[in-house]
Amino acid sequence: MGAGNNKRGHPLLRGGSAKRERYTHGFSASQMAALTALCGALVPSLPPADRRNGHHHNPQPEEDGGSSKVVEEFLLASAADPPVPGEVAELMSRKCLPEALALVRAVLWLLGTRLGSLALCGARCLSWRFPFVRRFDELPLEHREAALRRWSRLTLLPPLRMFFLITKVFCLYVFYSWTDENSKNPHWRAIGYSPPPADDEPAPAESERPEKRPLDDGIVETNKENDASLPALLAEKGLRVADDAARNVCRVECDVVIVGSGCGGGVAAAVLAAAGHKVVVIEKGNYFTARDYTAIEAPSMEHLYEGGGFVSTLSASALLLAGSTVGGGTAVNWSACIKTPDDVRGEWARDRGLPLFATGEYAAAMDKVFERLGVTAGCAEEGLQNKVLRKGCERLGYKVESVSRNSSEGHYCGSCGYGCRTGDKRGTDSTWLVDAVSRGAVILTGCKAEKLLLEPGSAADGRAKRCVGVVARSTNPAITRTLEVTARVTVSACGSLLTPVLLRGSGLRNRHIGKNLHLHPTALVWGYFPDTVPDLRGRMYEGGIITSLHKVEGGGPGAPARAILEAPAMGLAGAGTQFPWVSGRDMKERMLRYGRTVHLFSMVRDRGSGTVHGERRVAYHLDATDRENMRDGMRRALRVLAAAGAAEIGTHRSDGQRFACGGATEAALEEFLDGVDVVRGPQSKAEAWTLCCTAHQMGSCRMGATARDGAVDARGESWEAGSLYVCDGSVLPGAVGVNPMVTIQSVAYCLATGIAESLRRGPVSRKD
């Protein structure tokens, strides 16, 4: 075991919370009393005699105690115990949108009063003793649980349901993800959850350490610099740097500036640097390598995902996962590598007037991407979830397809969603960006682009404006200077959620900027497999994440799939936030079965779309056809789970919809499946609701044959501002229907090749 400074993993990713001296959430004492009572109802202390035997997974006894002891300790634990309520309040104050936080504060204030508690909880607050009305924190557990169930079902006051959802998500997330100074959570052993701990492998001795990380020749980590050191370091990297002391600005000149280092930005940087151009990549996230990753959920989500993983649509009906680190989504995705389907390419070329997708150039670009990522087609050993998917499909006679991955065939890593600790997965941070740095590219980390530098365009260009660079600012408080990076070409590659924000915030007004957002929405289902199933060993978080898929057939031969079934990665705290809450006891029993609860999801190529209104402000509409296709996928997935031998199956509907398979007839199963539907989100008017998840965002600055059809042209250049290009998922004309990583990289390769050619034909002059 490592110790002290020899702990494996970057300090930011190890977790471990020393007791805080003070919190900054600003909640009053009465609000905290109400929040503590809420946490205690969501995750209550349960005497061992109250639990139902046989409904949980028993971990193997360990040296310091048997399984029954650790399970009893878990059942006795409560989220009302410190430090959970304080950590919940702190996390909500940092992650909630302002209106959501205002709602939480208002409801907690009401619950901290007797009249407010009476108004929100009803007659259960009344007492025969003076003062005859009890505050929420004075209610017995069963009354608090009843109030929570009522709020979850309430249709006349949507804000109360939203309050329930917010407190449930944050409470369960903190309870199951909080770690102590040793990167341990006291409840993991009882659940049988054993992520690779941060200190399970000693760090190499100094003499054995690699001399440098793959990107060190080009990395400038602004969070380690200050106003004095940053300009000198940039100059060392071969950039022309000038200080403008009067404006407190550091000016940097290059040929190409790229905002974002993910799927599109990494490829564009490699192609343009290879063409001989000085490239600067601006990335707001940090740089981590395989030796830095820990697979510890909370710190990994905080530092590798946009908004720490707490980004949702404005209606809270969908959770949006997007990478926010060097490598972007490729650093945390699930390795699936699927080329753009032929029918989608044909549709985009034919119906959208974009001939690129029907060309040999695009096909060659996909091959080039596969080659650079080292994509393999096989899998030496599948993990539990993919084994279940394959077994259930084969028993039912459904076709199962193997999924190619950007890793070796022996890659057996279930924690790639928190960064690949083995270094086997090949994201842009270990491929395209390495190529770019080897050709002189510079990557500024911890640096956020604030706006584009625009000036009047030329009549010859036909565009009203011309982009000459980017204004950026380091997230490091020690750097007070603004960075102005001027360039012949500017590329926005900060993803479908943020590229529209940058363009709109800089004054561009094309009506397609921020529109047409596609998400590949998913609906989750689950099946519980006891340890006694002989051919299905292991835990749901072990093994390759996506190695198999099943396509739910369309309306006829050759018709596109209505939905795709795959297995997700789901950390322990993530499972807690996604499982429906119907009682504290039920939730604890669900969590005790976590390791053997297999999840599958139904994903659709969405016809509906959404709008990016601003940073973390996304609206989305799921249309009727999407809902129908998701429903058919859910029903198919539940059949697959039952056929594979699940003892129980269910959905994530808020009322805990589930079905016991043992001894059930086929007719009973069909009756249950007939009742499975895609219910709407928490702001719907129905008593039952659910959440959907998505990790794919596309189309919010789509390319179009004319300015009436898209935000950029077929070469990726803005219709409004010359020399401004977009090279990320936002340029895709629509939803791909499969994992979009290869499609985004292939499009970026083609667009960057075109940019390089335009620069070769003639330099774009720039005003001083």
From TrEMBL:
One GO cellular component assignment for this chain's record is: membrane
Q: Which SUPFAM superfamilies does the annotation name?
A: FAD/NAD(P)-binding domain
Locate the residues binding FAD.
Answer: 254-269
Q: Where found? A: Membrane
Q: Does the keyword Membrane apply?
A: yes
Where mainly located? membrane
Quickly give the catalysed reaction.
a long-chain primary fatty alcohol + O2 = a long-chain fatty aldehyde + H2O2
Q: Does the keyword Transferase apply?
A: no
Family indicated by similarity: Belongs to the GMC oxidoreductase family.
Please report the name of this protein according to its UniProt entry.
Long-chain-alcohol oxidase
Q: Which organism is it from?
A: Zea mays (Maize)
Q: What is the lineage of its organism?
A: Eukaryota, Viridiplantae, Streptophyta, Embryophyta, Tracheophyta
